[in-house]
Amino acid sequence: MSFVGLLTSYPAFLPSVLIGVLLVFWLLAIVGLLDFDSIGPDWLGGGHHHDADAEGLPDMLLALGLDRLPFSIVVSGVAFFWWLLTMLGSALLLPLLPLPLWATGTLLLLAALVVAALLASLALRPLKPLFTVHEHSAQQSAIGKRCRILTLSVEENFGQAEVEMGSGTRLTLQVFAEQPNDLVRDTQAVVVGFDAQRKRYRVATLGPD
């Protein structure tokens, strides 16, 4: 079967659709229309800026060691390996099994999902230090610093900004600002506070030096 045939047939069709949705999401995130923490449950208690409290996190997430990674990163990693394993299994294994396609395809989907979660755990765990910053330290050190807006706009519940913390360290913060404002992508702003309820940093337009 051709590659396109595998993509459009059961069972590979299901993870292929998920991969397509995630590709659209990441393209929108890259151009600044979304921030990468804008989907999924907030199981980190406000994002990747602090050590997460393990209480309330999915048990499987903790067991796989993915408890300090954003939802979008975890889902993307699992989806990629699920899609890859399902494609390989559809091409190499299913033609050899003398069972109905719905049965073998379903078994392949389930088995591939389990293995994909394990592979994603191995691949993503080294990234955890990049998303772990102590909350108190981050709040105190980010407030008052200049930042560069990463999203196309900053709204009262939406926005991302990059802060230079010194020694080459950069933090990506979830931010917000009162509207109306003129904060757009690549403009300079200043971090003026932290909203504990929203778990976002308040930014304001940087005035003239």
Automatic annotation (TrEMBL):
Keywords: Membrane, Transmembrane, Transmembrane helix. The chain crosses the membrane at residues 12-34, 69-93, 99-124. This is Ubiquinone biosynthesis protein UbiH. It comes from Tahibacter aquaticus. The lineage of its organism: Bacteria, Pseudomonadati, Pseudomonadota, Gammaproteobacteria, Lysobacterales.
